[in-house]
Write a structure and sequence with these properties.
- The chain has one domain: 3-Layer(aba) Sandwich (Rossmann fold), CATH 3.40.50.150.
- The strands form four sheets. Strands 10-9-8-11-12-15-14 form a seven-stranded mixed beta sheet, sandwiched between helices.
- It has eight helices and 15 strands.
- Helix 4 links the parallel strand 9 and strand 10.
- The chain is globular and about 45 Å long.
- By secondary structure, the chain is α/β, with parallel strands linked by helices.
Length: 300
């Protein structure tokens, strides 16, 4: 996966209404400076090590960032994004999973299957819907959530997809209505990741899987580049490590099944032989620039 390089979207640093927030993982209020970037900074929780922007922009300010310009960026890169998503899902064992055997009286026990997994998939932050379209064309029953109006409109109009233009928690999906939930490069953009994780647990069937892809602040690139790391950008309100993201999932009713990461050094940072060596080491030791976590909702 190291050969696919895409410039990360970043909203120009602007003045926004902000507020101080407690740690989203442990609720702590003691922080130390972590990364000082141009026009903003990150702090690290003294208790649990979660890195977050603080103070944070208000939710209504965050939503304003993803308009027509963001749609153009997604359309330009959507083939590469889809390829990366499919490779990440392969690394996480998505294509090999079996549906859990549910109790006979489970409200989801009679749901028709799509090959191995149950066939109802939700993609949160689905952008223009390229992954949803790929899944739908292979027999999945798909739904998307995308707060960017232009992107949601594109997916609905051009791909005839069911995409909801509201934050996940405001859609009021029925409990246990999805077999699989996907969220690629979304959780780091949210004001309240813990709220999203709790809602995903509610809407997943018992034994359902949640696939979360996000930058890895414990990777080689983050450690070497620090505030010059390509994911230390204005749009990322949280920077997770495998440890902090796993804890967030586990404390909200999930079992961590698999963690994979990739990307040792970005193209141009080192000669190809050295980059290849770092890429292999990053993948082997979980020190990649990006990670995916496969988490399973408890059966009870």
């Amino acid at each position: 996966m190291g050969g696919l390089q895409i410039k990360t979207w970043s909203t120009p640093v602007i003045s926004e209404k902000k507020r101080l927030v407690p740690c989203n993982l442990c609720g702590g209020q003691n922080f130390k400076k972590s990364l000082s970037c141009e026009g903003f900074f990150y702090v690290r929780c003294s208790n649990c090590d979660l890195v977050q922007m603080n103070p944070q922009p208000m939710p209504e300010e965050v939503k304003k960032r993803y308009g027509e310009d963001y749609l153009a960026y997604e359309l330009k890169n959507e083939k590469a994004f889809l390829d990366l998503q499919l490779l990440a899902l392969k690394d996480a064992g998505f294509f090999e999973l079996k549906r859990e055997q549910l109790p006979f009286n489970s409200p989801c026990a009679s749901v028709p299957l799509c090959e191995n997994l149950g066939n109802r998939a939700l993609d949160i932050g689905c952008a223009t819907g390229s992954l949803l379209e790929w899944l739908r064309d292979r027999g999945w029953e798909t739904t998307g959530v995308e707060i960017s109006g232009p992107q949601a409109d594109y997916g609905r109009q051009m791909r005839k997809l069911d995409i909801r233009n509201l934050p996940l928690e405001e859609n009021n999906f029925p409990a246990a209505c999805f077999d699989t939930v996907l969220a690629a490069h979304l959780i780091e953009h949210l004001n309240d990741p813990a709220s999203l994780v709790r809602e995903v647990r509610r809407i997943l069937v018992p034994g359902g899987r949640f696939f979360v892809t996000t930058p890895n602040i414990s990777g080689f690139q983050a450690r070497i580049l620090k505030n010059r790391w390509r994911s230390a950008i204005f749009d990322h309100l949280y920077l997770f490590s495998a440890k902090t993201l796993s804890r967030l999932l586990e404390e909200n009713g999930f079992i961590i099944e698999k963690i994979a990461s990739w990307g040792g050094l970005a193209a141009g940072l080192a000669p190809m032989p050295l980059k290849s060596l770092f890429d292999k080491a990053a993948k082997r030791f979980g020190l990649g620039d990006v990670m995916i976590i496969r988490a399973k909702k408890h059966l009870t």
